[in-house]
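Narrative progress, year one. The postdoctoral researcher (J.K.) led the effort to move from monomer predictions toward full complexes, under supervision of the PI. The following entry was the first complex the group processed end to end, covering 153 residues in total.
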Amino acid sequence: MEFPVEKLINTARAARERAYAPYSGFRVGAALLTVEGRLYSGCNIENASYGLTVCAERVALFKAVSNGERNFAALAVISGRTEFCTPCGACRQVLVEFAPEMDVYMCNDRGEYKRQTAAGLLPLSFYLPPAAGGDNPPGGKKPPTRLTEPVDR
Ligand code: THU
């Protein structure tokens, strides 16, 4: 299935408009594309207790997973700055959990981007083998495929 990257970036840009960032003023939008072609967006949501803030990327991913999605093709993330917006370390670990092979498009305010896979953004990510029968994937789908060579994670 073909999907124009501009559409993914535009979806992330629209989500950025909904950012709740009164403390940092740094507004971020994300858009996540499933393998089946469905789109989920997210924005950063800050809190007066700063550590409770959730990044745009995790909002998009958690919305998707809680809607039954498990297979992801690409994610775009954009801020309003001239620098490319790159996911924080916590988000990288969360992205790798579900989609190590997913393409991550890190955009600037002009819609230009750098692209890297989720696993490429987090070498040697933390990995815990799932407990036998511990996962409960919707629709009886298998858990995400994991690379078995630690050097490739
Ligand atoms: N933030 C994101 O939403 N995504 C990123 O990739 C980087 C950081 C948010 C968290 C916080 O609301 C603000 O940007 C400043 O750290």
